[in-house]
Amino acid sequence: MTDNSNNLSYSYIRLKGVTIRAAVRKGTEPGVPLLLFNGIGASIELLEPFIEAIPETTVIAFDAPGAGESTPPKYPWRPRHHAALAAALLDRLNFEDVNVLGVSWGGGIAQQFARQYPQRCKKLILAATSCGQIMVPGHPSVLIRMSNPLRYLSQDYMVELAPRIYGGSLRDNPRQALGHARLMKPPSIKGYYFQLMAIIGWTSLHWLHKLEQPTLVMAGDDDPIIPLINAKIMAARIPNARLRIVDCGHLFLLTRAKTLAPEILKFLA
Questions:
Q1: Is residue 59 within 8 Å of residue 187, measured between CB atoms?
Q2: Does some domain include residue 118?
Q3: Which of 133, 159, 160, 184 is the residue whose CA sits 20 to 30 A from 239?
């Protein structure tokens, strides 16, 4: 286990046939830890601005199989497999009850975790995400560009692409995306496509009404990847949910981390 300047303690753990890079940041105050599910292809580093903005909270993050420094599985996993991996990771790290936050692709896995392990998930935050295959899609040109990991492999391509696929503040400041890209460890090609395949045919739409956790659904009003209407649908379907619309794009949790942190901490309290 190693520590870095952001007080994240990293470890490499062998679970369910894959090696997972996990990180824990101990909070300054007692309370329920927060488990983070990241976006597709994204490594822990992309979450650092948000983690730094909530120093009070103990945070658990990990690279999904095939992302960052975690190894890919031998075959594509379904969301239930990713949820089971997270539960096994919590067991190994000696955490029981957690609050859960999922971003984009990770929001789908967060929903699955909340359904699969309701006794372990106390509160749920769904950021810039949808209910899966049955959703109102973004523009086809955006989805085509999201279908491969090239933006993570080429920083120049990330800067060129950011305004069109992420929206929000990145429309006027695309080089802001370069700062995020420089933090990240790129995914493996195999791992990225396995993550894409995980959600093919998966949807939570028919069981969202069964989620009992207090839920905060957050969405940007200028999100080209997952249009705002998807958050409105989820918030309407989840019994104990409220909707927070952010004046930004798909990456609002990073670009607005300091602004949103107090509101998120108040919800988690």
A1: no
A2: yes
A3: 133
